[in-house]
Design goal:
With 376 residues, the protein is α/β, with parallel strands linked by helices. The protein has 14 helices and 15 strands. It starts with a helix and ends with a strand.
Length: 376
């Protein structure tokens, strides 16, 4: 199946029963799949008038108790930012699929890129945090879609699944897990008298239980700074608590959230390749070729992009003489985060492609020798 189709299958496996979206290349196959599948499962598919309305509908459906998601690409994801900020402030579990394409603006609408990495993390105003995952294979499109819903429900946070166009449109043979084979998490429901329910009072794990609109638990969600009861509260001490809570609940569960894979990365390394999405394929091929030439090359694949796997990067890079980061953007958005994790003095090289074409294994092999960076 296609990567986009696998994302839809993974969402349904995880229990998603509401989709609202607007067609946009290269994510439209996800909407098409949901339009065909959701009604038969008792779910709801709505094609909205635009992406602003789409994310608003997803937030509403989630607060009514549904596992809800949408899919889009560059321009549509830009339009979603304000309401995505509302979902973060309201701690609304939902999943947004952003199949990355080349920009800016309409750009190369059918071509791949990995240039939304910073937008995914910092696209909203104010202090906020979310989770972002990046698949590299069709199977990972499925499994990370399931994981995205699990994280959203468990931690009451929006999760962005961010494949690039190559992965979204790749077709591979996939053996899908049977029902029950993968864990499927549900949001924590409140207990106790409904009249005492506080929708933003966290339990000992840092996560507040979430009721559903229409249940006996009546509660309020606002985009304004609010207290544990959900109603506006502009007191500085309350504001500090609210912002800190949004960050702390992810920080305390960081080791559960950060997912990586390694390939041939045991022992001392001459070269460590740090990859994500489609560059993982090129990176693994380049590492295999390099090992055939006697170069000890390993790959660290970032499945979780945010929170950034800085500890995992630093631990592997400490055993490598050189770190190479291939990515499809102009400024080295991932390489910048790798540099933060490693500090100065490390031989860090970037392979960057931003013309809508793929990074090849040869591009990466060329970067292992001078010059220190390859620009295309």
């Amino acid at each position: 199946m296609q990567g986009n189709q696998a994302i839809a299958e993974g969402a349904l496996y995880a229990g998603a029963r509401f989709y609202a979206g607007y067609p946009i290349t290269p994510s439209s196959e996800i909407a098409e799949e949901c339009a065909a599948r959701l009604p038969a499962l008792g779910g709801v598919f709505i094609q909205m008038e635009d992406e602003i309305a789409s994310i608003a509908a997803v937030i509403g459906a989630s607060l009514a108790g549904a596992k809800a998601f949408t899919a889009t690409s560059g321009p549509g994801f830009s339009l979603m930012q304000e309401n995505l900020g509302l979902a973060i402030m309201g701690e609304v579990p939902c999943v947004i699929v952003n199949v990355q394409r080349a920009g800016p603006s309409t750009g190369l609408a059918t071509k791949p890129a990995q240039a939304d990495i910073m937008q995914v993390r910092w696209g909203r105003h104010g202090d906020q945090a979310l989770i972002a995952l990046c698949p590299a294979t069709v199977r990972e499109c499925f499994s990370l879609a399931v994981q995205a819903f699990n994280f959203a429900e468990r931690f009451r946070v929006p999760v962005v699944l961010m494949p690039d166009e190559i992965v979204g449109h790749t077709r591979e043979n996939v053996i899908l897990p049977a029902p029950g084979e993968l864990e499927v998490a549900d949001r924590k429901a409140p207990g106790g008298p409904p009249g005492q329910y506080l929708p933003f009072r966290a339990d000992a794990d840092g996560i507040a239980p979430l009721a559903a609109y229409g249940s006996e638990y009546v509660f309020h969600v606002t985009s304004s700074m609010h207290g544990q009861d959900g109603y506006s509260n502009n007191d500085p001490a309350n504001a500090a608590w609210r912002v800190r809570q949004l960050h702390d609940k992810l920080a305390r569960h960081r080791d559960q959230i950060v997912l990586t894979r390694t390939f041939d990365a045991e022992g001392e390394l001459d070269v460590l390749l740090v990859t994500l999405g489609a560059t993982t394929r090129a990176g693994r091929a380049a590492a295999l070729e390099a090992r055939g030439r006697g170069i000890r090359a390993g790959v660290l694949q970032l499945q979780t992009v945010w929170p950034f796997p800085d500890r995992e990067v630093a631990a592997l890079a400490a055993r490598a003489k050189m770190v190479v980061v291939p990515e499809m953007n102009h400024d080295g958005q991932i390489a910048g985060e790798v540099r933060k994790a490693l500090g100065a003095g490390v031989d860090l090289r970037g392979v960057r492609r931003f013309n809508g074409t793929v990074i090849t294994p040869q591009d990466i092999l060329d970067a292992m020798a001078p010059p220190a960076a390859v620009e295309a």
